[in-house]
Design brief:
This protein is α/β, with parallel strands linked by helices and 240 residues long. The chain has helices at residues 14-18, 20-27, 64-72, 93-99, 117-123, 139-150, 161-164, 198-216, 218-221, 228-239, and strands at residues 2-7, 32-37, 50-51, 61-62, 79-90, 104-109, 114-115, 126-129. The protein is built from ten helices and eight strands. Bound molecules: adenine.
Length: 240
C-alpha cells in the first residue's frame, strides 16, 4: 500500500514513522509513506496557504487551491482521498480493516479553522474524524489512522492472530494480560493462566473479555457476535 500525506507540517511525521511497528513495516516495504508539503503548491511569493474567513469570525481558513494542487499532483484512479477533520465519520476498527484493502490512500491534514469548503466539494474526499474532540490539525489523526490501518496489512503485525484478538475486532474489549514475574508487589497471576490447560485458558480469557466489555463498554455487546457459551459466561459474571 502507498500512503501520501498532504500537510503544512511535514516534520510532524518523522519520529513516529520511524518507530516500532510502523518503522519496521516501512523498512520491509510493506507500506510506502510519502509526505507532501502543501505550502509547495502555493503560488505567491509569501507562500500563503491560509486566509481570513469570508463572513468574518476568528481563525484562518486553509485555501482550497494549494490543497487541490497538491492532491492533483498525486491522485490516480486507484487513490482513495481522505481528509482528517473533526466533522468526519468516526474512525472504527471496521473502517480501518476496509481501508487496509486500498492500494493508495491520500490523507489530507487540515489546519487552522478548516479547509475552504470548496475543496471538499471539488475533491469529493471522504471525511474521517478520530473522535469527538478537536485537535490543532490533522497530522496526529493521520498518524492514528495509518497506525491502525497498517495493523491490518498482511505481514505488518507478527502473528496475524494478534490482530484478531485485539480490542474491537470482535466488538469486545481485549482480556487482561500478564507476564513475569509471577508476583508483582504481592499481586499474583490468575492461576488458570499458569496451569497449561489451553481450553481452560481460552475460556478464562473470553470470560474476562466479556467482563470488561460488560462493565466498561456495554454498548459494544449489542454488536458482538455472542454465542450460547458467551451468554453462559455472562450469566456467571453476573453471579461472580
Ligand atoms: N482535526 C482536528 N481534530 C480532528 C479530529 N478529532 N479528527 C480528525 N481530524 C481532526
Amino acid at each position: 500500500m502507498r500512503i501520501d500525506i498532504l500537510t503544512l507540517f511535514p516534520g510532524a511525521f518523522e519520529s513516529v514513522l520511524q518507530s516500532s511497528l510502523l518503522g519496521k513495516a516501512l523498512e520491509r516495504g510493506l507500506l510506502n509513506v510519502n509526505i507532501s508539503d502543501i505550502r509547495k503548491f502555493t503560488t505567491d511569493k509569501h507562500k500563503t496557504a491560509d486566509d481570513s474567513p469570508y463572513g468574518g469570525g476568528v481563525g484562518m481558513v486553509l485555501k482550497a487551491e494549494p490543497v487541490m494542487q497538491a492532491l492533483e499532483n498525486l491522485k490516480n484512479k486507484n487513490s482513495k482521498v481522505i481528509v482528517l477533520t473533526p466533522r468526519g465519520k468516526k474512525l472504527t476498527g471496521r473502517m480501518a480493516r476496509k481501508l487496509a484493502q486500498e492500494k493508495h490512500l491520500i490523507l489530507v491534514c487540515g489546519h487552522y479553522e478548516e479547509i475552504d469548503d470548496r475543496f471538499y466539494q471539488e475533491s469529493k474526499a471522504e471525511e474521517i474524524s478520530i473522535g469527538d474532540y478537536v485537535l490543532s490539525g490533522g497530522e496526529i489523526p493521520a498518524l492514528v489512522l495509518i497506525d491502525t490501518v497498517a495493523r491490518f496489512i498482511k505481514g505488518v503485525v507478527g502473528k496475524e492472530k494478534s490482530v484478531e484478538g485485539d480490542s474491537f475486532e470482535n466488538a469486545l474489549l481485549d482480556f487482561p494480560h500478564y507476564t513475569r514475574p509471577a508476583d508483582f508487589r504481592g499481586r499474583g497471576v490468575p492461576p488458570t493462566l499458569m496451569n497449561g490447560n489451553h481450553s481452560q485458558i481460552d475460556k478464562f480469557r473470553r470470560k474476562e473479555s466479556l467482563r470488561l466489555t460488560f462493565f466498561r463498554r456495554p454498548d459494544l455487546l449489542g454488536e458482538a457476535n455472542l454465542g450460547k457459551d458467551d451468554r453462559a459466561l455472562l450469566q456467571e459474571i453476573l453471579l461472580d
